[in-house]
Amino acid sequence: MGKDTNKKNNKSRTIRRLVIWYKRNSAVTSIVDTATSSAVTATNVAGNVVSGAGSVVNTASNVAGNVVSGAGSLAKNTLQPLVFDPLKRLQNNENQITTEYHLNAERVWIAVDAMGGDHAPGPILEGCLDAISRFPINIKFVGQIKKIRQVSREKGLSEILDKEIENNRLELVDSGPPIGMNEEATAVRKKKDSSINVAMDLVKNNKAKAVYSAGNSGALMASAIFRIGRLKGIERPAIGALFPTRDQSRPVLVLDVGANTDCKPSYLHQFALLGNIYAKDVLQIKKPKIGLLNIGEEDCKGNELSLKTFQLLANENNINFKGNCEGRDVLTGDFDVVVCDGFTGNILLKFLESVGGVLLDILRAELPRGRRGKVGSAFLKSNLIRIKKRLDHAEHGGALLLGVNGICVIGHG
């Protein structure tokens, strides 16, 4: 009896110690919960970007007077139910798409730049084969076929690749040498048979509904302009990316995040119009709040570009312009669309990409050492994993190139 009593007392002391430890470290758990809430919308980037492409093309063409307004409507009607919805379900940890959904969905052809990216074509091929099995899509895999075959053998994917080709769900499309990540965007004129140009031609000739590339973003934009053209009234396309905010269900669209490092006020004005359309039709916000990224809230703040752009946006009746947006306000949820030049936007994007890793390092450093720390880490492990996944830019499918007459998605290379 004495031994049993001692065991019970020891268990009680252990439980009390755990409770005391947890209360003492409640600040850490509070940080985790807050970070989780603010980061949840990051995982919807890929689905939102892809699904909204057609809607932006359609509505923007009406604003700008584009003669091909029907193309955007077709893209939205096909991509929204087939790509956007299943991506959302996967990001909510629902790993299976029902058989009924596959049976009722019509498969859509997507052109993929197989040679785009630092480690292409291996990871690109693996991702495409996985996507074909998950979503009702077919893929035209554009690249140097000999190299693709070689990589598929090295990775043990030859059997799966041949099976998908036989089932007419994947097609290999041959191309010439790719455009490197360090090459100038003008290389698309010299390398006419490069993988990105061939993929873009498939969209131009209606053999694919959209194009995806994780390669040189400047080359992708140049190819899109030369091959499929800009929407009428749009001088420069912009890359739009969704950032998480305090409200997990309401991300903020930031554009441009890298397509145009040097901008004119008219460019930023057009970015605001494109962002307004995206927020309305894709994010389902009735009256999006538009902000101009600046160093202060006052009308008189900023450089010459900011001052002139502010006047254009303030006089634009088609948008709900709320004034300047300081850097600290981007993620607060006070704005639905934030407009900036590509140089500033890309710095902001890269900064956000580092937040997840830094936050996790801080949390690990603040956890106590020893057995107590291990116990606390066990409590927080699932939260930390979710934070890392939701803030990790590598988890996001890419960003949409807005303002071109077709659906173009730029992935992380």
Please sum up the structure shown:
This protein is α/β, with parallel strands linked by helices and 413 residues long. 53% of the residues lie in helices and 13% in strands. The longest helix is centred in the C-terminal third of the chain and has 25 residues, at 342-366.
Structure description:
Helix 2 packs parallel to helix 15, helix 3 packs antiparallel against helix 4 and helix 14 packs antiparallel against helix 15. This protein has an 11-stranded mixed sheet, with helices on both faces. The chain is 53% helix and 13% strand. The chain contains 15 helices and 11 strands. It has 413 residues and is α/β, with parallel strands linked by helices. Strand 5 and strand 6 form a beta hairpin. It is globular. The N and C termini lie far apart (67 Å).
CA gyration radius, whole angstroms? 24 Å
Roughly what fraction of the amino acids lie in strands? 5-15%
Order of helices and strands: HHHHHEHEHHEHHEHEEHEHEEHHEE
Strand arrangement across the biggest beta sheet: 3-2-1-4-11-10-5-6-9-7-8
How many angstroms separate the termini? 67 Å
The protein's oligomeric status is single chain
State the share of residues found in helices, binned by percent: 40-55%
- DSSP helix count? 15
Main sheet: strands, sense, barrel = 11 strands, mixed
Tertiary shape: globular
How does the helix and strand content classify structurally?
alpha/beta
Could you tell me the mean pLDDT?
77
Can you tell me the residue ranges where pLDDT is under 50 for at least 5 consecutive residues? Answer: 21-104
